[in-house]
Amino acid sequence: MVSGFITASGIIIAVGQLGPLIGISIKGDTAPVLLSGLFDQLTEMHLLTFIIGAAAIGFLLFARYRLAALLSRAGCSENIASIIVRAAPILVMIVVIPLSALRDFESLGVPLVGHVPSGLPPFSAPNISWHLLEVLALPALLIALIGFVESVSVGKTLGAKKRQKVDANQELLGLGAANAAAALSGGFPVTGGFSRSVVNFDAGADTQMASILTALGITLAALFLAPALYFLPKAVLAATIIGAVISLIDWDVIAKARRFALGDFVAVTLTLLVTLIAGVELGVLTGVAVSIGLHLHQTSHPHFAVVGQVPGSEHFRNVMRHDVITHDHILSIRIDESLYFANAAYLETVVYDQIAAHQNLKHVIIMCPAVNTIDLSALEALGEINLRLIDWGIQLHLSEVKGPVMDALGRSHFLQELSGDVFLSQHVAVAALTATKSADLAPT
């Protein structure tokens, strides 16, 4: 879901910057709206703006993929070459801003950033009222959800590139503190933005100090550099953002998900398409809904296997995958999921279907190495299975039950009513039950 959301967001951001890149204004939050606006105004493209934007994005892509190698061949050290490559957006601005001022790009029709208010906003308490809370409660919840998902998504993506772990809980605390501070200074809701984060990452940001230095840089720019930014063409800003977000777009994730699992393919594809077509808000909600739905579907239909003993060992494996030893009077079923209300009925169906397919049964063993928890609904299902098997003259046994699950069973009457036994291992269970049959068949 996160991969689909990031890829779609990267596409929307890149498409949204194509307008400023060619000198037109397009608005919208979805790919169809942005593309429609782009094609409708394509004839109004400003040639000089397009040349400036294309040159900027060309240089930025060249710097990312080729400049380091050229500088190394020219004798630059790896560190110096890396610094120059990461400073490529600044180098573009250093060249373009004076050129824009000298050549008067504004009079030539090139859209510029224009007047940027200088100074810092004053601190003030927000004006809170019950009416305002009622009106903003739902939008604020969606903004918080989307901001959190966006921050964690871009954090995980960029963290993975450097093999760093992102703590979602700490991220949530940080976002809460930042938004509380923003409320006292009239700021926008705070989140980890895709485009800004990727630009920061490409510049070499590696620790929290990068954020502090960024904040200081923005402060200094707001105080002293606002007049110079007046002459910066919007096409250069668009080129910088497009060059950064290209790395977020990962079409391979769809193919990888399709090869790996149908559920993952559905999650990533739906999230990507809905985000592109309907916007970030619905894309996030769709991704969350699909993820929850897939989880419930998978856990409500857990994988199970009829198992047998691998010859010459104490291991038990799936009879459909391995050449194993089985016994006519014993049915061993391994459940590969915790048991709870969503799969309780499915557990009963699995057991009854397997019993119907095996004749002359005297014992059914439910193997529980993957059962980490059990709730009351699943416990009632086990009790129902136990009672029905008693009516059929079959004993129910459990094996390899984990401690927390055994504690839960001990707090109920299930163990007292269980027709069979609870065994430490599957091997011990099968050995005991085959020995019992041999004793029953022995002559007196």
Write the layout of secondary structure elements.
Elements: H1 2-16, H2 18-22, H3 31-40, H4 47-73, H5 78-86, H6 88-103, H7 130-161, H8 168-183, H9 194-202, H10 208-229, H11 234-245, H12 252-260, H13 262-278, H14 280-300, E1 304-309, E2 316-318, E3 330-335, H15 341-357, E4 363-367, H16 376-391, E5 395-399, H17 403-410, H18 414-417, E6 422-423, H19 426-441
Parallel strand pairs: 3-4, 4-5, 5-6
Antiparallel strand pairs: 1-2, 1-3
Helix pairs in contact: 1-7, 1-11, 1-13, 1-14, 4-5, 4-11, 7-8, 7-9, 9-11, 12-13, 13-14, 15-16
Describe it for me?
This protein has 444 residues and is of the alpha/beta class. The protein folds into 2 domains: 2-121 and 128-296, no CATH class; 304-441, Transcription Regulator spoIIAA (2-Layer Sandwich). Helices cover 63% and strands 6% of the residues. The chain has helices at residues 2-16, 18-22, 31-40, 47-73, 78-86, 88-103, 130-161, 168-183, 194-202, 208-229, 234-245, 252-260, 262-278, 280-300, 341-357, 376-391, 403-410, 414-417, 426-441, and strands at residues 304-309, 316-318, 330-335, 363-367, 395-399, 422-423. Strands 2-1-3-4-5-6 form a 6-stranded mixed β-sheet. Strand 3, helix 15 and strand 4 (363-367) form a beta-alpha-beta unit. Helix 1 runs parallel beside helix 13, helix 4 (47-73) packs antiparallel against helix 5 (78-86) and helix 9 (194-202) crosses helix 11. The radius of gyration is 32 Å and the shape is elongated. The N and C termini lie far apart (66 Å). The mean pLDDT is 87.
